[in-house]
Write a structure and sequence with these properties.
This protein has 174 residues and is mainly beta. The chain contains 1 helix and 13 strands. It is globular, with a radius of gyration of 16 Å.
Length: 174
């Protein structure tokens, strides 16, 4: 099984944390990592994790690592979304308060992929109720979101959207 490690390098390429520190050692081959820095010199990492694969396919887990390389939330990450079916293609962006915004493609309704967003605070709690806010929920496919700051503490989210049919180039809703 794969595990997740991280290392910090200085501007000359020197490893500051030796051979790296474990972020997640849960068995099950985590994948699709997204990382963003935080205002307290740490970083937040979110990844696809099949540890509950029998029930929900790939879930999303998240962990904050401090400037010394130590994971500071729950061992092996906290569940960001463990709804049925797959959550994937996650993106993370700092919220400028030590936390992050995370958007992802979610197939929880088993009909089509939709876009969800959650804000995770610096202490690992979620700002939005349930497991996130549905930004786009439609019977057609929406996937692969991208994040950008709105320069006011919020976030702008864009994604591919097939609601008007699979034309090229893809329709992008903002």
């Amino acid at each position: 099984d794969y595990e997740i490690k991280a290392n910090r390098l200085d501007s000359l390429g020197n490893n500051l944390w030796g051979t790296g520190n474990f972020v997640c050692q849960q068995s099950g081959n985590p994948s699709d990592m997204a990382v963003c820095t935080t205002t307290d010199n740490g970083f937040i990492m979110v990844w696809g994790d099949p540890r509950n694969a029998i029930v929900s396919e790939t879930d999303l887990y998240i962990q904050k690592v401090n400037s010394s390389g130590s994971a500071i939330w729950q061992t092996n990450g906290i569940p960001l979304c463990t709804k049925r079916f797959s959550q994937q293609y996650q993106k993370a962006m700092p919220d400028n308060n030590g936390g992050a915004y995370v958007a992802w493609t979610d197939r929880r309704d088993s009909i089509s992929n939709d876009i969800y967003l959650q804000r995770v605070r610096a202490n690992g709690t979620f700002a939005m109720v349930d497991t996130a806010v549905a930004l786009s929920h439609d019977d057609f496919e929406q996937y692969r979101s991208e994040l950008a700051p709105d320069m006011k503490g919020g976030v702008i989210v864009a994604w591919y959207d097939f609601r008007n049919g699979p034309s090229y180039p893809f329709d992008i809703d903002i």
